[in-house]
Amino acid sequence: MKQQLFIAFEGIDGSGKSTQVKLLAEKLRQEGHKVYSTFEPTDNPIGSLIRNIFKGRMTADHKTIAALNVADRLDHLYNDVNGIIKKLEEGYTVITDRYYFSSYAYHGVHVDIDWVIAANAMSAAALKPAIHIFIDVPPALSMERLNSTRGTIDLYETLDNLEQVRAKFMEAFEKLKATENIVFIDGNQTIAAIAKDVWENVSDIAK
Ligand code: ADP
Fold it and tell me: Which domains does the chain have, with CATH numbers?
């Protein structure tokens, strides 16, 4: 059995994260890893509450949403049935579609980014990914993809907001580059070309 890894994908909505999570999971399985793929917001109760806000079924202030995400992430880590820490202990390589950098970026647009980073300190101290893979796409391209494939558009999915979110991702990466392993991948390529770039980065650490 291969040494298990914890890998996080980051990017704005429509950047191709979930597509690449699936492809990387398949590749790692071929290489002999047991793989558990997961995502944030989770589908546990706190994550479901957050999704209801995103879908406009209920409203909440941005500070409340930022705090709910802190709680959802702690549950994602520590849940004793399907938490990331438990899965790693069971020998799985875990790939998550979004982790704390998504909070820094999405909530940093509305709430002081340093507060968001501090509020997530418990998660960052508990478990840092071996690698954060940021799939970078121009917001106009991601909006085009979302508009052509999705029936509904979420709270954050406007061009103006995604421009601001992308800028906050960059601000957060710059702030934390000394302590986090971050790779940037050009998301404006074919799905196969992106998967190849992802694998080049992951194969280095998946020995
Ligand atoms: P995310 O999980 O980041 O929101 P998805 O992986 O769901 O993004 O991709 C959003 C949409 O764009 C999907 O319809 C997907 O098939 C499509 N897509 C993903 N990657 C690419 C790509 N490299 N080129 C063109 N379309 C893509």
Answer: 6-203 (3.40.50.300)
Helices (H) and strands (E) in the chain, counts: 10, 5
Q: Whose C-alpha lies nearest to ligand 1, atom 12?
A: 145
The residues facing 182 across adjacent strands are 132
Which residue's CA is minimally distant from atom 5 of ligand 1? 16
Q: How many A from CA of 198 to the centre of ligand 1? A: 15
Q: Which residue's CA is the nearest one to ligand 1's atom 14?
A: 149
Atom of ligand 1 nearest to the CA of 149: 14
Tell me the pLDDT tens digit for each residue of 81-92: 999 999 999 999
User: 17-30 vs 191-205: helix axis angle to the nearest 10?
Assistant: 50
* Ligand 1 pocket by Cβ (under 6 Å): 11, 13-19, 145, 149, 190-191, 194
For the stretch 60-109, pLDDT in tens is 999 999 999 999 999 999 999 999 999 999 999 999 999 999 999 999 99
Residue type, 27: K
Residue 153: predicted pLDDT: 75
Name the amino acid, one letter, at 188: N
Question: How many residues does the structure list for the chain?
Answer: 207
pTM assigned to the model: 0.97
